[in-house]
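Lab notebook, bench 4. Still working through the backlog of constructs that have no structural model yet. Next entry is a single chain of 132 residues. Request: give me the structure tokens for it.
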Amino acid sequence: MADFQEKSKPPELPIAGRRNVLMTSALPYVNNVPHLGNIIGCVLSADVFARYCRLRGDNAIYVCRTDEYGTATETKAMEEGCTPQEICDKYHAIHRDVYEWFDISFDEFGRTSTPQQTQICQAIFSKLMDKE
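Model written out:
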């Protein structure tokens, strides 16, 4: 089983002279344990495409994150009597374990709540605001 959390060197894009493919899928919410319907409707199709691209010899990178923002996270935290951060920590680990069990071939599986993710999103938003 591939362990997408323990990559020694992250994949790189682009590589000159090769077909470079960067893909993601719908980001799963961290408000529950993922079930087969979530996997089929969310991450499986991108996983199949990533595997196809790799078999063709493409430089393919599959990136995904758990979506840790929104009403669903807040509601689940209230239901379980804990903070949204505790919900995110708990269910991100569960999602990671389930996807590893299904051998989903992420090259990078992370979280939307990291400082790096926040910085990138804010930079993109600022750039868009500057184009008004």
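Notes after review: The longest strand covers residues 59-66. DSSP finds four helices and three strands in the chain. Flag for follow-up if needed.
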